[in-house]
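Hey,

Quick one before I head out. I ran the complex with beta-D-fructofuranose overnight. Inputs first:
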Amino acid sequence: ALPTPHWRPRLHFTPPAWWMNDPNGLVWHAGRWHLFYQFHPHSRVWGPMHWGHASSSDLRVWQDHGVALAPTAAGMVFSGSAVLDAAHTSGLGSAGAPPLVALYTLHDEAAAQAGQATFQHQALAYSLDGGGQWQRLPGPPVLPNPGTPGTRDFRDPKLRWLPERQRWLMALAVGDHIAFYSAADLRHWVHESDFGAGLGAHDGVWECPDLFPLPTPEGELWVLLVSLVKGGPAGGSATQYFVGHFDGTHFHADPEGPGVRWIDHGPDNYAGVTWAGVPDGRAVFIGWMNNWDYARELPTAPWRGAMTLPRELQLRRSGAGPGGVWRLCSTPAREVQAGLGPVLWQTGDPAEALNFALQAAGGCAWLTCQADARESFSLLFDNGLGDGLRVGFDAVDGVYFIDRRLAGETGFHPAFAARHEVPRWAAGEALTLTLVLDTSSVELFADEGCSVLTSQVFPRAPWGRLLCQGPVQGLRLQALG
Ligand code: FRU
């Protein structure tokens, strides 16, 4: 018999029990990072969707608050977003105490089963106590499905305040495109524009959009995230992005670019969006660390589904001039880094102490290394039970890789055992890499976050040995804290 699984992550958010998918309602409010999530509180498989709720003061330690919104006779509570209505535009609550307002997709499964054309609408809920209790706005959904051709999938509203227009913007996934709506009061929505039909990847329907500005040395640019269920670079679900300009009503993608761009080339980063209301304006992102291909089969218990580490997003230009391309780069949020534990081993320390350091860290670690991009190297983790996880750089193909084929439990789905890679985006000989190894995941951030791989792994015991193959120059191992 296998040992009892110990796959509860240390740093990554998981619900105490049951099924979780997309992050929802990400809003910073009164010193706390609120994280709502698609939740089925009676089962480890997807079902009638609720919003679960957790919050954190530091993006490291999460307090779970249980169910925030449950399905009603009108339908399930699908993905959506939340904002602080600071100017009290909605008229909900009182002027002295502005409400948190969430828009979510009301999914009427009975109507879908009955073959009706419209079964997804946008509905409003609000909280007057900072996110604890939620009331639904009485009456019909604030944005009913128009029922025109192509609006069968009509979901995942993401809200943003547009100061220039003094209006709210909603980005909404509508089958093969993103629709933008605006409202002065979060309740009366007007269609502004559509983006994306014929652009980007379309192997699955578009889901979970997010549109936000980022500063660059050349001025502000806007990024549009779009998730799609299948057709990702590692197989199955993934999140693509577009870079361009937003004029208040329309998003215009820059024509430049090598085709489809992905925020993460690994198999396990889906439906991610950014927090609203972050005081310093950073774009702080979190994704569902999973893939619809095998999410229902994961061997974890009593929960199923985890989030990625919270990440900060930035734009960097790779290559100058007309050949240059904006890359959306992700690095672990500074809050996560601030709480790391002590350095347990670094290059120069006795070689034989490396394994003890990894064991002292419980097989979980924050690893950084430098290497020479002209030579291949790999880090091989093993646990004495024959499980091996290999992570590294292939200088011949110019790719970083994570190979989880032999990394423990893989048999629960045929798509799981695989090697994934991401092209190196940086040029030059100096290569830097950060690896975040948690109980059941590994995240690789290279080239200042321009090359990213996120991968779940289920070793049958914690990693206890680390073998470096090839010239790894400066290796440092820190406890996750
Ligand atoms: C994305 C998604 C969303 C939907 C939700 C339902 O993973 O399919 O489009 O709102 O999950 O749980």
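The chain has two domains: 18-334, 340-478.

Talk tomorrow,
K.
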